[in-house]
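Lay summary. Proteins are chains of building blocks that fold into shapes, and those shapes determine what they do. In this project we predict the shape from the chain. Here is one chain we studied, written as its sequence of building blocks.
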Amino acid sequence: MWQLLMPLLALVAPGGGSFSPNRELLECASQILYMDQYAYQLPTNYSRNIPPGKNTTVYIGINVNRVSGVDENREEITLDVFLQVSWEEIRLNVPPGRPFIDLPWEFRQLIWTPDLYIWQLQTMRILSVLQEMASLRLYANRTVSVSIGATITIKCEMDFVLYPLDVQNCAIDFSSYKYTTEDVRFEWREVAPWFGIAGEQRHEFRLPKYVVTFVTDKSNHIRNFGEGEHSAARLQIKLSRELRGYLLESYLPSSLFVIISWGSFCVIPEIVPGRMVLLVTTLLSLVTMFDTVSTNSPDALELKCIEVWLISCTLFVFLALLEYFVVLFGIRYDKSWSRRRQDLRRAASAAQLAPPLHMNHSQRLSTPVTGTPQGGVFSPQLSVEDEGLKQQFSHQTIQRSTSSERRSWRGNRVGCETRPVSKDSPILEAIPQSGSANGVWARICTSAEKGVMFCGAQHGALDRYALIVFPLCFILFTVIYWTTYLSEAHRAMHSTRYG
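And here is the predicted shape, written in a compact code that computers can read:
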């Protein structure tokens, strides 16, 4: 550049002497702006520190060549852009017969240029091959245009609560840090669109994870700081995440794991290894998937959308495992109750064969319970669980006990306590009235025993109900989940976040 300028600048050097670029260019910079065949001089009263006039309009045009990448952890977007800034400079003229003149890039320091400030800018690097991709041009209509090709990194505040249904909205403001709205206004100007390789204009950029869209906001925006209000031209960037990959990698496998866990309800409960392996393996797979997704996904202040889904799927499998524990406990209790029920029936048969005895209450309580009239031996421990036996012997109990003796019998009973029963005493007593505390506790014990026996029934009653309830609950959860989060994503897509 200096080799090309030295012969021209030597023409105006005083006395035709030698020219030093570092010294004599600064001496002539106040007047010499451009040289081709003629020396073009700046007006003598020109000042590069004063805007061309009050309320000068600066036009911003931008073409996005490529989206280099999106860093979710740093919340940054890297773009390759061609930026054009133009304004009217009424103090400059183009030589006659010329539509425009191209000025050396270094001469931008000789004229007034807007102090352009990009609010969300992190770094900016002008592209260069043989020289920097930057131009300074003066048109015949006294318009100065500055064009540069640069790689810029933009800071974008992102919210990942809806991940992977999140839509990020980033606002980039082009403004002045020194001049207020009374001096300089910024507006968008449409520039020649950038066409892709196929010759089609690109409205959006598709990345492996995002679809990036750029929209220029034509409304007037004001930034309040420093000495007053500053005009700003705003560029909206929308990042919509590609959902297809997450559906195949996370949502579909986790749903299949939940569905597979329902197959455990069809396995015979006595086959403990088969059913336990199925449920535990499914549960561990979901836990591993949740840990992988949490590690590889960006951080958020709350539970992310995909984390809510995986936690819910894990809970569904855990509840299926918990249901199997209840079934195993019921089976174990049912087997113990079967043995007690056989003893109870033998005791009932012995009581039916025994002749009625007219004894007072104290004598009946002192009667031994170690034998039957035929010499048989029965278990002395009886309980009140079997409702059928209660009804079977209620009539016999009424015949052998007076009303006063029954009241004394109720007074001796405490909760679900079991005690030795004599040959002539009632086998089972009716549940006390609901008004007493003992009656409430007895009903609770009876209901709990019925529930446990229902869970441990050999015909698998609880598994049959679970096979219906679990799929219905999962379908209901799926509908609520997608309805809620898709509506939130739709609302976020049409909202604007200001940086």
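What the prediction tells us: Residues 1 and 104 are 9 Å apart (CA to CA).
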